[in-house]
Amino acid sequence: MERATARLWREGRRWVIQIDIDGARYTERDYADIADACHAITQILRQRGERPTDLDEDSCELCDEPLDMLACSQCGVDGFVRTCGHGGPRPIRVLEDALYCWTCRP
What we know:
The chain is an alpha+beta fold. It folds into two domains: 1-50; 56-106, no CATH class. The chain is built from one helix and seven strands, in the order βββαββββ. The radius of gyration is 14 Å and the shape is globular. The termini are far apart.
């Protein structure tokens, strides 16, 4: 990780976090209070600083959909993955209600 910024704001009764890490944007909109939102920012930045980036995708050039952080149900590796339908197969994807990375995919 070379550079990261985080934003925090309120939408209705929920708190929203937006984190930009090395140009990849990640957004979550599901926090009841500001303490939980700040804790989530800390966890994401800590995980990102310690994890490999080979499963991360670049932002889509065709749309503005945000990236989503997904974690493999089997081994726990995570990656920033596109939420849109553009491009090829995802490095982490859902199969039969579980998430699988390239290595664990059946």
